[in-house]
Amino acid sequence: MSGADFIVGLLTIVTGLAICDMIVSLHGLLINRHHVKWDWLAPVSAAFVVLAIINTWRMTYVAFQDAERGPAIWVFLLILVQNVGLYLAARTALPDKVALGEPFDLADYYDFIDRYLWSALLTAYAAYIFLSILGLITSGRLLYESLFIQVLIGFPLILALVIWPTRKLHRLLVPLLFGWICIRALPGTLLIA
């Protein structure tokens, strides 16, 4: 096992915990499904976060594939910032507590967390863009051009969701972002560059 394998392992634990949290939150909603006033924005946002995490796993694998040593600590910290942003978005996308038998309005929940959720994702995207541009400057090439383009296109849309938390805009941009990540991510393979 190389040193890079340990780095990938740590980052996978962070984002793996995020997905576990989302599963627990989904369980709380489903077990109390008769008392939940459903709204599609939160689940679609959560699905977007899951695909963003999977894309990050892929990018991390590609970045460290065949690496004998890891990056400089400051580069690793930026990669960790990206993963923490994804973790925070995952923790927020679905509610932590849904009391059994108590009414719960998913639209109200989304309206309460929307800026935080998309700000966390914006942080992850910004860290990735910064690292990609830095890699381009230092090595003369983008490590994973397709993902970089996807993130560059998504960044201004996510920024708009942070700046303008109007439901009308979110109903337009969230499905657009979800569709875009589905088109870009789902046809790809997970561990092959």
How would you portray this structure in words?
The protein has six helices and two strands, in the order αβααβααα. The chain has helices at 3-31, 41-64, 73-93, 106-139, 145-163, 167-185, and strands spanning 36-37, 104-105. It starts with a helix and ends in an 8-residue tail after the last helix. The protein has one domain (3-185). 76% of the residues lie in helices and 2% in strands. α1 runs parallel beside α3 (73-93) and α3 packs antiparallel against α4. The protein is globular, with a radius of gyration of 17 Å. The chain is mainly α and 193 residues long. The mean pLDDT is 88. Strands 1-2 form a two-stranded parallel sheet.
What is this structure, in a nutshell?
This protein has 193 residues and is mainly α. It is built from six helices and two strands, in the order αβααβααα.
Topology (SSEs and partners):
Elements: H1 3-31, E1 36-37, H2 41-64, H3 73-93, E2 104-105, H4 106-139, H5 145-163, H6 167-185
Parallel strand pairs: 1-2
Helix pairs in contact: 1-2, 1-3, 2-3, 2-6, 3-4, 4-5, 5-6
Descriptive labels:
globular, 6 helices, 193 residues
Order of helices and strands: HEHHEHHH
Provide a count of the helices.
6
**What's the number of domains?**
1
Oligomer: single chain
**Which consecutive residue ranges, at least 5 long each, have pLDDT under 50?**
none
What proportion of the residues form beta strands (DSSP E)?
under 5%
The secondary-structure class comes to mainly alpha
**Helical residues, percent:** over 70%
Please summarize the sheet with the most strands.
2 strands, parallel
User: What's the mean pLDDT score?
Assistant: 88
Radius of gyration: 17 Å
